Amino acid sequence: MTTLRSTRRALVLGAVPLTIALTACGGSSSSDAPGAGPVNAKPSYIRAVSVLSYNGSTDDLLTGGLGWDGLAGAAPAVSATPTAAELRRRAIYNNYRALVDFTAAGGYGRLYGPNVALDGTVNSTAGAGKIAGKEYIAYADPDGSGRVNVVVMAQIPASFDPANPCIVTATSSGSRGVYGAISAAGEWGLKRGCAVAYTDKGSGNGGHELATGIVTFFDGTLGTAASLGAGSHFTANVLPADLAAFNAANPFRYAFKHAHSQQNPEKDWGRNTLQTIEFTLWALNEEYGPVSSSGVRGVRITPANTTVIAAGVSNGGGAALAAAEQDAGGLIDAVVVGEPQINLRLPAGLQVQRGGNNVAAFGRTLYDYTTLANLLQPCAAYAPANAASPFLAAINATIAQNRCAALAAAGVITGATFADQANVALAALRAAGWEADSDLLHASHWATQATPGVAVTYANAYSRASVTENLCGFSFATTSATTGQPAAAAASPMGLLFAQGNGVPPTGGVNLVVNSAAGPILHTLADGNAGTTGALCLRALWTGTDAAATKLKAGVDEIRLTGNLRGKPAIIVHGRSDALVPVNHTTRPYLGMNRLVEGASSKLSVIEVTNAQHFDTFIAAVPGYADRYIPMHHYNIQALNQMWAHLKSNAPLPASQVVRTTPRGTGAPAIDAAVNLPAIAATPAAGNAISVNGGVVNVPE
Fold first, then answer.
1. Number of domains comprising the chain
2. Do the strands 511-516 and 12-13 form a parallel or antiparallel pair, or are they unpaired?
3. Residues 506 and 530 occupy one common structural domain
4. Which member of 210, 332, 581, 597 has the lowest number of beta carbons within 10 Å of its beta carbon?
5. Can you give the residue range of the structural domain that contains 537?
6. How far apart are CA 296 and CA 32, in angstroms?
7. Catalytic-labelled residue, pool 173, 183, 203, 314
8. Tell me: the pLDDT tens digits for 33-80?
9. Is residue 577 flagged as an active site residue?
C-alpha cells in the first residue's frame, strides 16, 4: 500500500533547508557509522541536552510519580528551595489539571485520565497511570546567544517500539511551559507507545524579576541573568542604565517571555513544532540507532518510517496547523487539534453561515476580537439576559456600571441606563462574531482575567515592545493585598514560577497593573471603571493608524495562516460555546480556506461540539460550569483515536459535523457518556452535517 512515508523527500522549513533528508535530524554520512550510513548528528540549533530516566514507580513521564489519584489530590510539596525534581513534579501536576476537568463527576478517572486505557479500560488502583521512560530536554537556539531559547523536550516511553516508531507533538497551549500540553496530547501519545515531542514554542512561562535580576533555567531552578547568561530561559533585553532607571520609577516589576522577548514568538510556532520533531527523532536514534565498532551512533528512526501526528489545543493547536502548513518536506503525517487559536489570511470567496444564514462576522484576528472583548465584557456581563452567568459576582457591579458609562462617554456603546448600556455591549459582542451560545461565558472570562491578560500580553508581543515601555500603561508586578498597588511580595514568586505560572499575568503571584489617575494599581481597581483608559489604548492599537498601531498590525501579519495543509489528513475539534477563541473567527473559516486551497484533495474534518467551551478546567473550578458544559477533552481523545485508525488501518475519517451533547443539568450529576456525550459519527445525520461548497461553510443550527 502506498503511504505518505514512501514519498518523503528532504525536509525544507520555509526557505531554509535542513539536513534531515530521509534519515534523521542532522544525519550525515560517515565511514564511522554502521555500514557507512548516516551518523546521528544533533541538530545544529540544539544546545546542551539533559537526559533523565524515570522508573515508572517513584517517578514517571506522565504523572511525575503521583499516579492518577495523586494528580486529583493536593498539590505535591516543595521545599523552601525547590529542587528541579520538585519543580517538575509540581509543574506536571498544575499543567495536567489546567487543561482538563479533574473531578470524578466530570469524567476524570472514569472516561479519561492516566488510569484510563485507550480502549476505555479503567484501572482504579492507587498510583495507576505512571509511565516509565526517558526525557530529553534542551534549548533550541539558532545562534547560541540565548535570546531565543525555545525549550524542546522528547519523552520516550519504555513501551516505544523502534520497529513501529511514532511521534506525537504536544506544543504547549497558551503561554505555558514545556509540560503545558501533557494532558492535552502528551498523555495520549505516551499511552499509544509513541515518543512525544514537546515545545514551549518560545513563549513559555519565562520570567525575569527586574529588581534582582533573578531568572530561571529550563528546569525552573533559579539563577541571575548574569550567572546564567545564555542559559537563561528568558532575560529581558534592556541596557543596564535603562533597567536601573525603569526599576527606580517602577519597582516590583517583572518581564515575561511571551510579552517581552521582543521577537513576536508566535511567528515561529510552526517552526518550533517542526524543530521539536527533529529533536525527538535525534533523541530516538540516540536510544535505538545502531552503534559502530568505534562507538558512533547511527540512524534507525527516520521521517520515512515514523508515523507523526501533530497535536495540541488552543495555541498548541494553532502551532500544529502552522507546522503542517510549513511542512514542505513531509515530516508530519496528520494533524489533530482542539480549539485552535489561529489568525487567518482571508481569501476572496470565503463565507461562514450557520443554519444557512451568514454569520455576523468571521475571521477576525485574536488581537482584534480580544481587545474588543476586553472593553465590552465587564459591561456586557450585566446585561439582564446574562443574570445567570457563572462567576458574575466576581465583577463588582459598581465597577461594571462605571465601565459601561465610560464606554458610553467614549462613544463605544450607547444607552441611557446601566441595563441599556449592558444590552448594547452584549449585542456588540454578538455583532463582532461571538455566538449567543457564548453569552454566559463573558463574565467569567473577564473576571478570571483570561481576557485582559491575553490582551496585554499579545499587545506587547505583536508590538515587540520592551518591558520598559509600559505599553498602554500596563505592567506586571507583585501587589499589596490591601491596596492593589505594586508592593514587595512576602516571598519572591520566582521560586515557583516554572511550576505554577502559565506565562500570562496575572499568574504565579505576579499581577496585571495599570497606571491610573492615582498611580499604578491592579487594573480591576483602576479609576473605578477597571482601567477603561488602558483598555481603550489597547483597542486603539488595532483600530488606529499611528506608528504604534502600524507596528502591532505588522506583527499580526507575520502570523497569519493560509489554510494549506498540503493534503494532510486533519481533524479539528472545537466547542461551539468557545468565548476565548470563537469558532467564527478560527475553525469555521479555516475549513473554508482549506477547501478553497486544496479543493477535492482536502482531508480536513471539523467536529463542532455543542455545550463545549475553551476551559475544561473551569468545569471543575468555576461554579455554574459543570451543569452547563461538557469536557472537550473527551472529544479530543476520540479524534486522536480516529486519526490513528485512519493512518494505521485506512479507516475513513469522520465527515465534518456538529456533535450535539447533553449538559449534566441542575446539580451536575456524574457525567455519563451514553447520556451526555454522543460519539463522533462516521457519517453524520443530515441535520448535523457541516457542508462546504466552494468557500461557503454552512454549519447547521
1. 3
2. unpaired
3. yes
4. 597
5. 368-555
6. 6
7. 314
8. 555 589 999 999 999 999 999 999 999 999 999 999 999 999 999 999
9. no
